[in-house]
Write a structure and sequence with these properties.
9-stranded mixed beta sheet, Rossmann fold, 27 helices, about 775 residues, alpha/beta, 7-stranded parallel beta sheet, Spore Coat Polysaccharide Biosynthesis Protein SpsA, Chain A, 24 strands
């Protein structure tokens, strides 16, 4: 009897399981039917719209006129008659002559362009003056910084420190107190003990122009920069200004201005002229770096009274300089930090703009004479070819130096890896970083993190005008710093420069970092003979280099990326944050972290969530990119707005990783994304596409699953395994953490990179 009861129970349980499975299949079928109905509805809507548009066309006057003309044409030239061939033949003849004429015109235009280009080159060559740059005496500073100070004791130390922090260090600082009347400025200045800094006290009250002249009289530098005591300089300013002054023989270089304090905005610099400065306004910032000989030749600064009748002394000075024919160059990057007060000389000025223009005009109208006009026109069309342009810009070398070349810096996985690597390398090497392209704003800007490693960061596209200038600046960096190692990460401009770089710098070594087998592999192979070491992010890249391109095994190192498993990505260091999305901790959270681009496949993730719509799941998608708006539209079309949380770019995703039950990486193209390593380290399993180096870290049924690319149903199936078996999910979370501790440690990665660099530099 008991056996019969047991058998009945087993039958009931089995029947219930089958019923549950049938219900799940029915639910899936309903989901698929719903999606099909949705697609059918969209198709019907599109068909209706097309029919409506056709109706408008057929009922339009133009269509009726064209239709009548067709009927007339058919009467004159009936079908299947000889007459019908006449218009066809005429059309072919006209088309032939049209194409020939178009080709001829294009050829003439190209020849004109070629002639114009040759003529321009001829004029440039004819108007080019060759200059032999002279070595500035070693006992003299190249730049003299003059800081007038009146009652700004509380700010002056910050101004001095911004100069001392410059990447170019051959300067002197001259602080002039022009009769401060407050109680603290004199005391602060007397106590200041800063390197390269001399402080002078003047008896009585002197205006700012006179204080600048006083300081410039004492200056020993070839160039002068006047910095107000309450303003600041970007750490790369002198180096960028001096590059233009020494390489292109400009007389005055001035940057854009970023305001801070009572106002936050940017005043963009632009190249100017004598007429603009006289008739419109001042285009030149206070901190312009200029030749001291230009100050001597033009007569220095002039002052006007404070308040009624005040004229900005720097505006008038720059107008006079440019009027004398001195050449000005604007840097579009904001490299001056201008402190805006509620009250200052400018705000106290009671002279309106028209009166200021008239005063400056009257002061400089003598420079409108024919001789000065002729000189300005001549200087405008004159080019300078400077020999030995970097002779005064070299840096003292104390350690070996690495130049890291990037296309841009963004907040993403690759940059997270590079920051770890170069943070480690910076303990033994001096690091310089360049970027050559502007990154889209939605990708974020990681410059602030790189500045923790080095202040020698140069975004070339922000302050240089063209590729020629970028190439010259890169040559300058390599020569002035005697770069030992060039570390390339997908920088197309550097690839193209490798032949020249390696020819001119015989001892330089080149490393190319390859994150995946796509992207920059073509350039890597094109310039492979100039690359000393290829660092591959996974074994697959190495296999391709050896098997497909016959690369020497000795020129390849596979270094698996790592994360800080002990601290930054240690789940024990964080508490569970439940405020970011849903209140119910029992809900199953599926996450996507990455750039919204086609290769990262955010659309596949949305389709996966759509098939799980009936399950008790919620989804998180962080990031931004070109596919962001398309992804939001897709989410709306599936009615998933309440199921998928899309905050856009999130600076710190660690709490969200920890909140997830599983992370999905559905990429179409990938190397070895850092998000997988971070996720495993936080003890979260990953379901990812079978691409790049992903299979080297994701083990099926251990710390995640591998699915075919774009296999939406496959991803859904693996998610359901973990959704339905929470014990398995807990075990896989433990496995993920254990794998990370054993295999993807940041310490291990840093040791391998340090070893690779040391081996290449032979020490």
């Amino acid at each position: 009897m008991e056996n019969q009861n047991n058998n009945k129970d087993e039958v009931i349980i089995k029947t219930q399981n089958q019923l549950s499975e049938t219900q799940n299949q029915l639910s899936e079928t309903q989901n698929q039917l719903s999606e099909t109905q949705h697609q059918l509805s969209e198709t019907q809507h599109q068909l209706s719209e097309t029919q409506h548009q056709l109706s408008i066309v057929f009922n339009s006057k133009k269509w009726k006129i064209v239709n009548k003309l067709h009927k007339i044409f058919d009467i004159i030239f009936p079908h299947k008659t000889f007459r019908r061939r006449i218009p066809r033949f005429s059309y072919k003849v006209l088309r032939y002559f049209y194409r020939k004429t178009k080709s001829l015109i294009r050829s003439i235009v190209n020849k004109k362009k070629s002639i114009a280009s040759l003529f321009e080159k001829y004029l440039r060559k004819t108007n080019t003056i060759k200059i032999q740059n002279k070595k500035w005496p070693n006992h003299k500073p190249l730049v003299s910084v003059v800081i007038p100070c009146f009652n700004y004791g509380k700010y002056v130390e910050q101004a001095i420190d911004s100069v001392l922090d410059q990447t170019f260090q051959n300067f002197e600082i001259i602080v002039i107190d022009g009769g401060s009347t407050d109680e603290v400025t004199h005391e602060i200045l007397k106590k200041l003990n800063k390197p390269k800094t001399k402080i002078y006290f003047r008896d009585g009250r002197y205006l700012v122009g006179d204080n600048r002249n006083y300081g410039i009289n004492l200056a020993k530098g070839k160039y002068v920069c006047c910095l107000d005591a309450d303003d600041l300089l970007d750490s790369t300013y002198f180096e960028k200004a001096l590059f233009f002054l020494e390489t292109y023989y400009y007389d005055v270089v001035h940057p854009s201005v970023e305001c801070f304090g009572a106002k936050s905005e940017i005043w963009y610099a632009q190249d100017t002229s004598f007429e603009k400065m006289m008739n419109i306004g001042n285009y030149v910032s206070t901190v312009a770096v200029f030749r001291r000989e230009a100050w001597v030749g033009s007569g220095g600064y002039k002052d006007w009274p404070v308040g009624e009748g005040h004229i900005p002394e720097d505006w008038e000075f720059w107008t006079r300089l440019i009027g004398h024919g001195y050449r000005f160059k604007a840097i579009k990057e904001p490299l001056m930090l201008y402190r805006v007060h509620n009250q200052g000389l400018t705000s106290k000025c009671k002279t309106n703009l028209d009166e200021q223009r008239l005063a400056i005009y009257n002061e400089n109208k003598g420079l409108l004479e024919k001789s000065f006009n002729k000189l300005r026109k001549k200087n405008k069309r004159t080019y300078y070819s400077v020999k030995s342009p970097f002779i005064n810009l070299t840096k003292t070398k104390l350690r070996k130096r690495i130049l890291l070349a990037l296309p841009f810096v963004i907040i993403g996985g690759a940059d997270a890896v590079l920051l770890k690597i170069f943070r480690s390398l910076s303990s033994d090497y001096d690091i310089t970083i360049i970027t050559t392209l502007d990154a889209p704003k939605e990708y974020g800007d990681n410059t602030i993190e790189y500045k923790k490693i080095t202040n020698e960061i140069y975004h070339l596209s922000k302050f240089l005008d063209n590729r020629v200038q970028q190439k010259n600046f890169i040559h300058y960096l390599i020569e002035s710093r005697e770069i030992d190692l060039l570390f390339v990460v997908g920088c197309e401009l550097i690839y193209s420069m490798l032949p020249d770089i390696c020819t001119n710098n015989k001892c330089i070594k080149v490393v190319d970092q390859l994150f995946n087998e796509f992207g920059h592999l073509k350039n890597n192979r094109l310039y492979s003979s100039f690359i000393n070491l290829n660092i591959a992010a996974n074994e697959k890249i190495k296999e391709i280099l050896i098997n497909d391109y016959k690369e020497d095994n000795e020129k390849i190192r596979v270094i698996i990326h790592g994360v800080d498993v002990d601290n930054e990505f240690n789940p024990e260091k964080y508490s569970y944050d439940n405020e970011l999305m849903c209140e119910n901790k029992d809900e199953f959270i599926i996450s996507f972290f990455g750039r919204f681009s086609k290769e990262k496949a955010p659309d596949i993730f949305v389709k996966i969530i759509n098939l799980l719509k009936k399950s008790k799941v919620k989804a998180i998608m962080t990031g931004h990119g070109p596919e962001f708006n398309n992804t939001l539209d897709l989410i709306k079309s599936y009615n998933l707005c309440d199921d998928i949380y899309t905050p856009g770019f999130v600076e710190d995703i660690k709490p969200l990783i920890l909140k997830s039950d599983v992370v999905i990486v559905p990429s179409r193209i990938e190397g070895l994304p850092i998000i997988i390593l971070e996720t495993l380290s936080m003890g979260i399993p990953v379901i990812a596409s079978n691409t790049g180096g992903i299979p080297t870290v994701i083990k099926n049924d251990y710390n995640g699953y591998i699915c075919d690319i774009e296999d939406v149903e496959g991803f859904v199936e693996k998610i359901k395994i973990l959704y339905n078996d929470r014990d398995k999910l807990r075990q896989m979370k433990n496995n993920a953490r254990e794998f990370a501790l054993s295999n993807i440690s940041e310490k291990k990665m840093n040791i391998e990179y340090n070893d690779a660099v040391k081996s290449l530099l032979n020490y």
